[in-house]
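Q: What structure does this chain adopt?
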Amino acid sequence: MLEVSQLAVTYGQHRALKGVALGVKPGEIVVILGANGAGKTSLLKAVAGMIPSEAGSQVRLDGHGLSGQPPHRIVEAGLALVPEGRGIFGDLSVRENLLLGAFAQRARADQQANLDRVLGLFPKLAERSAQLARTMSGGEQQMVAIGRALMSAPTILMLDEPSLGLSPLLCTELFKALRAVRATGVGILLVEQNARQSLAIADRAYLLENGQITGQGPAAQLANDPAVQAAYLGGAAAKKVTPLAGAVTAGGAAARAPGAADMTPAAIAAQALAAVTGARIGGYGTPTRTTSADALVPTRISELVRVATQRQAQDVEAQRGAAGASANAGHPAPDRAMAERAMAELKASGTLDEALARIEAAAARVAPAPVVAPGLEVWRRPGLEIYRRRDDGQLHKD
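A:
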């Protein structure tokens, strides 16, 4: 069994991994899900000894410590890595590539048995035994890379993005082959961009974000989690948008959302806050997802803009009327300081009022003419931050 605890990796001033802990048993597939830059490749390389980990990091295989060991010693212990990009020798034949995998001392005695097992798992490699590896398709090269790693007779096989660049058909064949590998008793630690298919074949999964494990559990359970669906599976199963006023409902239930004019300001703010302050994957200060504002408020942003514009016009008229009445009565007209004091009082009155003020302020700055809806970038607790997308496509924080 592979056991990892307190794994930490630093590149200069950048902390790539911090306190990572996970385990992989023989005969099970464990998948690691995470966005680009989350630290997935660094995790596999650190476990394989290809990059150094910090003091206190622990990597154990079948009870034997591997921390600080060179890569070839880790391979001898029974841990093999198929790196991203495959790393096969293009000018060598398929057979030569596979036999290089049996260089480890632990695999030499059973070289032929291991070769027969690999060719049984990947029949195409038996047909192409003499073919130069660089002349093969991407899927076939990936088979060579996995077969070469299996030739070292590993207890645990680690794969980094094995489906990268493969067609959907080849991806299906690849994941079918990984099931067959698991059936031989080899444990698999899989980093994969195809979250849907990897969760379908995995036994367990870990969620890695900003170098830390933020969630874990049975793969089937995580695949049905709305937050995981929204973050990694496109959110198709987590929500559906109805054709009525852009209403978004959890779990696919369709319901008519009231228009902005039908709701009180506090209700609008409460709906927006409820959408972003619930349980989410990731730590504080970490963006969990970016989505249209239409998906977070119970109405279309264009309607909010229209209502805010109307309110602004009404406020201007009211101020003009108040200014005229004050001047006739000998009192000074309302000034900017009064408005600022009123806004300060509003912000101090509570979270809902503050969120409403920020939403309305953002909406009021948008011209009433048809424009691209401002975007909201959702961060985990404790607050709501509003962004507007510029003409160049970049999000600008209001």
